[in-house]
Every structure is written in structure tokens, then in C-alpha cells.
Amino acid sequence: MKSPSDFLKSLFQAAVAAADPNHCLPTHLLNLKITPPKGRTIVLGAGKAAGSMAKALESFWALNFPKNAIEGLIITRYGHGQSCKHIDVVEAAHPVPDNAGIQGAEKLLSLAHGLTRDDLVICLISGGASALLSLPAAGITATEKQNITRELLKSGATIHEINSVRKHLSAIKGGRLAKVIAPAKTLTFCISDVPGDELDVIGSGPTVGDPTYYHDALQVLKKYEIQPSTNIFNHLSSSVDETPKPNDKVFNNCQNILIATPQMALESASKVALSAGITPLIIGDSIEGEARDVASVHAGIVSQIMRHHQPIKAPVVLLSGGETTVTVRGSGRGGRNVEFLLALAAKLKERSNIHLSRISAIACDTDGIDGTETNAGALYLPDTIARANAAQLSLEGHLSNNDGYTFFEKLGDLVITGPTLTNVNDFRAILVL
Fold first, then answer.
1. Same structural domain for residues 251 and 111?
2. pLDDT attached to residue 428
């Protein structure tokens, strides 16, 4: 086997490759036997993978339908854009929306107006679309939307909860885009970054019926003690112009297709582990909760393997995905993946019956960006705690300050990939030898 760090990085690379739009989108287009419509073909989309999805679609279209024109617009995160010939690419801020995203969303929505049954709209949605496809509902300002987004992201709320609020503060999400597109046919291709792969939660489901209500959004704000502005409170309290629900007729001509999921990424990593002679054990593809709590459970499984050879004997690599949360109380730098690794290290350090020399781990976001930092995540290695002690780095201190980035940066163990141009959320692997 390669060194633990190289082995774990190879698993992460395999997981990312499995969700590459160039790999998975053309296959689904062929399977659907897609053909050009009588009318126009419009491409609309948003998300961290939207640029690479648009480029893959353009290549497929040029090869198979060179005489049929396509046009459209997608919005992606700064630095995630791709060069397209016929589809406009707008870059905007994530996770807190900015004016570029709002202006892009306005233009995108205008392209959806006035379509007929002879037209086809191909939507490309991936993680990040909720922030990038930002068009505040009437009566709500951009600043109010930005402020509430910041509060939600710091609160520890799940992505399902956050997006229920986003849908009800939006003029385009929560199925509202589909409402404008109708009666044209809509094909939406999704790369899932949410636990459970719920289509209405991926990018806040702009072309999917919304099962949540204004009341649900208000309950989320109440639960996490977030005080909304007067405009937002009044808007959510009035319940005017509710989002279209799953049984609404506007979705009669809509089809939503998952082309990449966290489970696919984990299965791809499993194959790499098996080829190296290491047994993979997928714990789950939709694990949620505070990063520290998730780390504690993972540490408990590691202990069970070492002490009792259950549920499986070493050597083994534990694989998991999903989206953890971090309730930010400190002022440090870091995302949920470095927070997970810090907490994992702290839990492993507490257990005297665990042989640290036999444990390594990686935790990264498959989009290449952990939180708002420049790293995808980091590595925990058998000598991490010893090197931290030698460098006088306080594991507990960095954890209490939510400062995982600085901790792993000083050890030289950050994983930096740059934008991967896809997104199937967190990837975690713990190697037990």
C-alpha cells in the first residue's frame, strides 16, 4: 500500500472523479435519448459545478446536434467558471450572495419567460445554487438576504432547514423557476450535495415542488434564535404567494435527474481501497450533525474495531459522506471538515486503548473548498498529535476557537486542490491498520 497520506488522497481523488460532469452528464443524456425540440433550447443553471456541467453539455450538443443551436446562462462561484461558446457564464459570491449573483438571477429568470410547448429548457443544478441563484422576494433587500444567510450559516442549522428559509425569501427558488418556464418542457440534471439526495433541497429546488411552508421557515429562525429584519418577518408571516407544491400542474412537464451523488463517490473510493488490499466500510452517505459529534461517533467506531474487531477487522477504511454543521463560537479560520478532524484527534487522544500509530484520516469537501477557505480539507496522520505538541499547538485551544485551518496549516497537512468543478459534499475516510 502507498503511504497513509497518499492512499487517503487517492480515495478522495476517486470520489471527486466519480462526480465529474464530463464523466456522468453525457451518459445520462445518451440514456434519455434526448433530441432537439421544434423550438428553442435554453440552458439555465447554477451551482459550483454549473460551469463544468454547461461545458460538458455544449460538447455533447456540438457532437450530436451540430445544426441545432443552444443558448442560455449559468451562475457559478468565483473561480469556478468555464469557457463556453453559447452559454453565458456568470461568476458570483458563495455562500453569502452578492449583487453579481442577484443580477445574474434576474437575467436568468428573464430567459425563462415567454416559452412555449415547443421549447426545451435544460437546467443544470448543483450544490451552491441556493446562494448563487439569489433573487430576493418582493419587499426584501439584498442586504437583508445577506444578513439572514450569515446568521443561518453560523447557527448550526442543517441544510434542509437553511434551504426552507431560502426558498421562502426567493423569487426563483422553491419551484418558482419551473412556474415561469411552464409550459415548456424542463429537464433538470442535478449533482447532489445534500444528505438524502432530496431534489427539492439541492440548490433549493428551483424546478422542484416545495413541500415546506412559510411557517416552517419561521420555525427555523425561532429554533436557532435568529432575529429577522422587520421586512423578512412580515414576509414570512404573511404567507402570500406560497411556493408551488409537488402536485402543482406547473411540474407536469418537468423531469429531474440525479447524475451524481455522495453514494456514487463513496463507492468509487471503495473500489480504490479494495484494489490496495484494504477493506472499505461505508458508514453512510448522508451523515448530519455537529462536526464534533460526528467525529465522536467515528472515534467510537475506531475504538470498537481496535478493541473488539467489530463490526469488521482491521485493516479497514471507514468511509462516510453527508454534511456536518458547525456552530461558530470562536473567531478562528476553518470549515466543517477541519473541525471534524480536530474533534476526531481530540477524541482519539482521550482513549488510552487506541493505538494512534495505526490511524490516519482525511476529511475534505468535494468542491475543493472547506467553508470559505482555500483548502478542501486536511489530513490527520499517526504523528499529528506528536508534531502538534512539538510545535506547541494546542489541539483543544484551536478546536474551541473553530480554528482548524490554522492548526493544520502549521503542520503542513492541509489538502489544497483548488476548485474541483463538482460538488457531492463532504468526504471522510479513516484508515485503521
1. yes
2. 98
